[in-house]
Write a structure and sequence with these properties.
The structure is a homodimer.
Chain A (H helix, E strand, L loop, with lengths): L23 H11 L9 H5 L3 H13 L3 E3 L9 E3 L1 H7 L11 H12 L7 H8 L4 E2 L1 H14 L6 H15 L24 E4 L4 E4 L9 H15 L5 E3 H6 L4 H4 L4 H14 L4 E6 L2 E6 L1 H5 L1 H13 L3
Antiparallel strand pairs in A: 1-2, 3-5, 4-5, 6-8, 7-8
Helix pairs in contact in A: 1-3, 5-9, 6-7, 7-8, 9-12, 9-14
Chain lengths: ~300, ~300
């Protein structure tokens, strides 16, 4: 019953060309908690108060961000259910149901980077360019190659729509950063200011460097979830892997080496040394205690629990 | 991402030799709703108030009856979540949270018959003998053959433990039927009186025939779920298939042909003819309208909704 990672087939176009808007994830998870098959019903238009394509888009974004999941069912449509993270974050008494905390936006961004099935282009785009600047044309070539390797048939139009969706997620429509708000059609993730448009040169630029709005807890959550898949048997991992690999926290959050190590040091302090930076013969490694290694997922959630319960 | 039915690998021994007891399913689903990873934690012993093996057994029975499901997770243990059926049946304001209605026991029984992964021997045993009597030895031969066909390695001891578990589920320990109650160690399903022991001859006997305690709604739910997997394109099915096939409602509930047709006639009435019995040239078939065919799962749940809301 195990699904091997190499069997994962990405899906495209689920967003229906919409980026997700303020309130969509909450709307989606609340509706699913009342009716697990809401997205297959005509009533969804009324319940969610949007048109047919937006209903499909809300479903997509709830699944792509992993705040809801497909469950087993007997019918043609799989019933959805809130995920563990979705429940903790978005229920009325949850961590931050209205995503008012910048930490939550970073968390949602990390969720997309970690979903190669429904947000296939995300980790690819975010991990491919160690240089800051890139063009849309470069992205199209990059994604086309990746898709070719997976022997998936698709069209250039499909690829372009995926890329447009990523760009519109992070770049405000007006091009003015820090302006995404409740009334706008922009994705709340535009507030993260991760990608800037340089329209005069037809280029985009990643904002690489320290991220004052990224809480150590969210960095730590992402790091632990990343390590969970890699440190089943090992206890050490080179810092370079976690900083530069495809889908790594370093690439997801576009950190430079200094700010990355800063976070690791804060985490070393917050975990009372259960995670340590270790330097041997010029090779810097992250070292985990056995205790942390066997409870990494719990610790990941506990970091967020502490963060949101901080006041 | 589709799991084909032929890829399903049965699991054995999850019950830890315990049949499920009164209150276990409710206990399990309630605990999972508070903490999706409860079964992986040491606290489970305290939360559930039972020993370590029983904790594992409760987890098994919750999964085998499909009242909870595994969800996607990042760690080694998959988080569990209440299923759609589990929520509707067992929540405080659910249909019958304490399984006080015989209909609920029939429903739980049907769930086991429908779970070839975690209750593999159930549909096999219940569908193999059209004669009423069988011995434990016969069951061992039967199951061994089935397992051989799947190229699964196991031991005769494992097979015997599975069969013992099935027999103890339906045959009260004292051998006296209709005596399963809250204080006893028997499985509540013993009340269904589906299997009787004939100790003097070392045999068991299926109770084949009409089942006055089986509500039409539960029969109908089972029938619709069974048809859902078979009538994706067709609109008719021979009554024999639904009566005699492996895992069919006829075999699950050990009905004879007359009582089976009685249920179909009641269902024809209750669905205002959306399901009809049709006889052409001596071949009796079940016929579904398009309208029923496309909404079969909803209709299945609605039957139960109406049944439990009847008073």
């Amino acid at each position: 019953m195990l699904i091997r990672e190499d069997e994962i087939r990405p899906t495209f176009g689920g967003h229906e060309k919409f980026v997700f808007r303020n309130g969509w994830l909450k709307k989606g998870i609340d509706a699913v908690r009342v009716d697990r098959l809401i997205f297959t019903r005509d009533e969804a238009l009324v319940t969610l108060g949007v048109g047919k394509n937006m209903v499909r888009s809300i479903r997509h974004w709830c699944l792509a961000t992993g705040i809801v999941q497909e469950t087993e069912g007997t019918g043609l449509a799989k019933p959805l259910a809130a995920s563990m993270l979705g429940e903790r974050l978005l229920l009325e008494n949850g961590w931050d149901p209205y995503l008012e905390d910048m930490g939550s936006l970073w968390l949602i961004h990390w969720q997309l980077i970690s979903n190669p099935v429904r947000a296939f282009v995300w980790p690819v785009i975010f991990s491919a360019y160690f240089d800051a600047e890139f063009s849309k044309k470069q992205l199209i070539v990059l994604i086309s190659k990746q898709i070719e390797q997976l022997s998936i048939r698709t069209t250039e139009g499909t690829i372009e729509r995926e890329i447009d969706c990523v760009l519109r997620t992070y770049v405000p429509a007006g091009g003015v950063r820090g302006q995404a708000n409740e009334e706008s059609m922009d994705c709340p993730l535009a507030e993260l200011d991760l990608i800037q448009a340089i329209p005069e040169e037809n280029l985009y630029r990643f904002n690489i460097g320290s991220k004052p709005s990224l809480p150590t807890a969210v960095f730590g959550y992402a790091l632990f979830i990343f390590l969970l898949k890699r440190l089943q048997t090992r206890r050490t991992i080179a810092i370079e892997e976690v900083l530069y690999q495809n889908g790594s926290p370093g690439q997801a959050f576009k950190l430079d080496e200094n700010s990355f190590v800063d976070y690791l040091e804060q985490l070393e302090y917050q975990t009372s040394g259960a995670l340590r930076i270790n330097e041997t013969a010029g090779l810097r490694q992250i070292y985990l205690t056995d205790d942390l290694a066997v409870s990494m997922e719990n610790r990941a959630y506990r970091l967020l629990d502490d963060y949101y319960g901080r006041d």
